[in-house]
Amino acid sequence: MTAIHPDATGTTVENQEPDTIIAAFAAISAASPDAPAVIADDGELSYGRLAAGATAVAERVRRQRPEGPVALLCRHGATTIGGILGSLLAGHPYVPLDPTFPRGRLAYQLADSGAGLLLTDEDNRSFAEEVAGEAPSRPVVVDIDPALNIESTVDRDRLVSPAAPDDPAYLLYTSGSTGKPKGVWQSQRNVVFGARNHIRRFTITPADRTSVLTSFGFDMAVTDTFSALLSGAAAVPIDVRSSGLARLATLLAERGVTIYHSTPTVYRYLLAGPGREEELTDIRVVLLGGEEVTARDVRLCREHLGPECVFVNGYGTTEVSFIAQHHLPPSAPVPDGIVPVGRPLDGIEVLLLDGEGRPGTEGEILVRSPHIALGYHGEAGGAGARFGTWEGERTYRTGDLARRLPDGTLAFLGRADRQVKVRGHRVELGEVETRLADLPGVAQAAVLARTGTAGGDTELIGYAVPSGDGELDPAAARDALAGQLPDYMLPRAIIPLTELPLTVTGKLDERALPDPPSPGPVTEPEGLTELESVIARTWCETLGLDSVGRDEHFFDIGGHSLLMALVQLRLASSLGTKPPMATLFAHPTVGALAAHLAGTATTPDAGQVATERAARRRQARTKRGRR
């Protein structure tokens, strides 16, 4: 296989390597069958065993003779990777589904994709059957755990897929402005191109270990997984949501991760959170993306990681994957304020269009490249309004605004529309508004994004006008949304209004919408025990609140899974013991958690409230906490 080397000029290096994922993977697995390919909670697989497992999965897929893509609903680890390769080997693109999402949303994605087969594992089989049962097509559910437990290898000549380079590799769903998730098709050729670009820029070798921290339904995971598997390195999937941030540093150190990639939110919790004792000196590259990156993030890298660690800010979209990167070697000065997103990658051209569609130094980012996604699902030929051509080359209008700086790098300026990033995930405010407005008893709705008090993360605030003379219960409305949307799309607060304010032109007057109440000095309700007071103070500190009642639900007052991980770290510091994440999720009120930690039953009133509240949440979210 032709070697890939960094090129100082930034031009594309010619190679004769295969342009399908399976062909490229087969070359690596044949050359190094005993090298580690995946290191995860659910097992460590060599390249030979992963190839054998993928072959066994492919045989199971072929026996079902599905039409269309193959969906996966598996744990975040080796099982998902084996399922992806098996689907591709059988000639089918894959559709990754996240087990933490509400059942209704997964059923919609499954039905919309046209998948006739749903691959799952022992942990998620029951949930997968429920999801499949809600899809009109009633896809067949197959447990692939047995296929991936094969203690053998496979000949390279069996690793042959009927797929061509321009055939689709996967269908990823993003937030859609119409109120429904939107699927994006990407080709085999583009996945291989993106992986090789990544490999070359960071000189990834078989000695490397790359983190896979985001859901496999997120394009970050595509880059992380295939840049490892197409270079001979090992992919290291870590489920941050179930393992908790308290274990993240430990797992990164134990598994020898050298290429770290995450959203800035997770990165900041990792390096700036309390209780971290591990030395992360193996990490030689930190790559952040999905959110705004600041000078503080660069300083965290310099303070906590090895002296040779390279800091990189990346910019991309699901439709193009990585578009630009800004590299800061250890000797580079720390930039002021916001870190630029850098220069376009090889094979990518960026034009900045003004309001008249003319190229200039500031405007909307238009990507011109042969490596753009095939298009949106259901829109033949990539005919979505954002796809087009420019002088014979395919283009994609990102909706993002940027300015070209004197040194040629791009400074990100925000969105040209109502799309925002929340904890690295793309969210269309219009989708959340549609779901809120569709709730019974709601006449009108609006949703805004703002900088929250808990760590400066972006959070959503909902506004709702009740129907007729009715009254709106914000907690009940949020519970109802929790059954339809993933937690990063849930408004932190829903504020009832008698009417939505309008400008003189009849548009929503966003500046006239009230802010949620600002936190004041921390106060404790009367009657809390000493342990309850410690927990309440921890919640206040984490969520930026002035007080927390004994029976208030963590997720109803602005909490989310990453903040719960921060609670775990702070409680460990305060109590001298680290409560498991499963315990924190199972007892999401101050009273219930304190009673559990103290080894006693809750008081009748508190217990009843906590139990009923948790039951409503479980019913609304429908298996959200499953792996």
From TrEMBL:
MF annotations from Gene Ontology: phosphopantetheine binding
Matching Gene3D superfamilies: 3.30.300.30, ACP-like, N-terminal domain of ligase-like
Pfam families the record matches: AMP-binding, AMP-binding_C, PP-binding
CDD domains: A_NRPS
Region annotation (Disordered) ranges: 603-627
Keywords of this entry: Phosphopantetheine, Phosphoprotein
Domain of life per record: Bacteria
Residue ranges of domain Carrier in the record: 526-601
Basic residues: bias regions: 615-627
Record-level GO BP terms: amino acid activation for nonribosomal peptide biosynthetic process; secondary metabolite biosynthetic process
InterPro entries linked to this entry: AA_adenyl_dom (IPR010071), ACP-like_sf (IPR036736), AMP-bd_C (IPR025110), AMP-bd_C_sf (IPR045851), AMP-binding_CS (IPR020845), AMP-dep_synth/lig_dom (IPR000873), ANL_N_sf (IPR042099), PKS_PP-bd (IPR020806)
GO CC annotation: cytoplasm
Protein name listed in UniProt: Amino acid adenylation domain-containing protein
Lineage: Bacteria, Bacillati, Actinomycetota, Actinomycetes, Pseudonocardiales
